[in-house]
């Protein structure tokens, strides 16, 4: 009986390591044939849910504050900025284009769209 409990304990410990704890919004990503994962020095993640709520690095923002935060220069002024947009595939295309326009207006050229 102790062996069975021990095996169950190990199973649950291992299975929890596969859970994505960084996922904040329930977003269904579109699929792509090829994707590239890039590690940058200063990375921003913009998440857009079906309710049109926008999160910048897990903090809720609106369009005005999004542009201000992307243009903000901090201690890493020399670092290259990178933006990844995670938007639900059922979301209105115009909203995603508007966010992409804000990113471009912030002089950030490294823009990626997350797919699965």
Topology:
Layout: H1 2-16, E1 42-48, E2 54-56, E3 59-61, H2 63-71, E4 81-87, H3 93-105, E5 110-113
Parallel strand pairs: 1-4, 4-5
Antiparallel strand pairs: 1-2, 2-3
Helix pairs in contact: 2-3
Describe the fold and architecture:
- There is one protein chain.
- The chain has 116 residues and is an alpha/beta fold.
- It has a single domain (24-113), classed as Nucleotidyltransferase, domain 5 (2-Layer Sandwich), CATH 3.30.420.
- It has 3 helices and 5 strands; from the N terminus they run H-E-E-E-H-E-H-E.
- A 5-stranded mixed β-sheet has the order 3-2-1-4-5, covered by helices on one side.
- Helix 2 packs parallel to helix 3 (93-105).
- The model has no long low-confidence stretch (mean pLDDT 78).
